[in-house]
Design brief:
Structural class: alpha/beta
Radius of gyration: 21 Å
Strand content: 15-25%
Distance between the termini: 65 Å
Helix content: 40-55%
Number of domains: 1
Number of helices: 10
CATH class: Alpha Beta
CATH superfamily: Glycosidases
Largest sheet: 9 strands, parallel
CATH architecture: Alpha-Beta Barrel
Length: 332
Amino acid sequence: MSKVGVAWRLAGLLLLAAGAGLVYFAYIPGGDANPHPFNHDRNAVWLEHRWLETRHSTGEMEVLFQKLRRRGVGYAFPHLIPFDARGELTPHDREQMRAFLAVARRVAPDLRILPWVGGLRVGYKRHRAGTVSLADLTQRQRIVAEVRGLMDEGFDGIHLNIEPINDGNVEFLALLRSLRNAVGPGRVLSLAAIRPAPVGIPFAPNFVWSPDYYARVAAVSDQIVIMAYDTAIPTPPLYRRYLTWSTASVTGALVASGSDARVLMGVPTYEDFGFMHRRGVETIDNALLGIVAGLRGLGAGGTFEGVALYAEWTTGDEDWAAYERVWRNQAD
């Protein structure tokens, strides 16, 4: 056989192997459904804005906190209004905030309440124009002042969600350093982080964060909650494998770096399906099975803290049952 014929045959074999590997990762079941020791009831849930902005009876709030305590939720992220273009929180119901905290302290004293604040960046439009300009030092200073005021109200920290943050953004790191001082010792600076990837993507810097940027963010925060959804991954096994890789890589890297930041993996419970969020792919079952597989044998040394459900108002009975069965090793 000629050298050209050998080369073509070798190329064909390589393509065949690559195709077989793609089929394996995309369609052969993955994940880990066996009992595991990874849940420590330090999980989290995002709550809708009505809990801090609309008056509720004491009984309604008691039911919420009893449910969260029963479900092993250690952190609640109730949504507060986004920062405006000045970096301020427009007037909201302080009396409801105080009532919410008072009932939480009585009914679920171990639950940490971190108001969910942030907004869309200027120049990025999804459903509305952005209001947060990280390059605006004056606006950043006002954001810090608003957070300091929330700490004065008695919250346990804040959960910051500004989107999108491009990989390597240094203004975001500067804001985190200032917020770390404003939050103060004994309280939690938590942030919602976009999905990780082995490397950054120069032509799509808003889509993933590189390992280097995760390490830089971890150095100036206490808790990183990875939004491990809206990935556009097309098959359930591939999504499970992505969650396996994400969990192992981020937690392992932070352990190796000596970071004190804790990691939670955000899992989807909503049904707003589309190209980015595929029906039957990004489910709570698939996410949890992937996370368990990623933690198996990792020895994360306490860096991994739990899972975070997005979101409480979209989590139905079947979702809670999957959470109890797969993550908490018990029947609902």
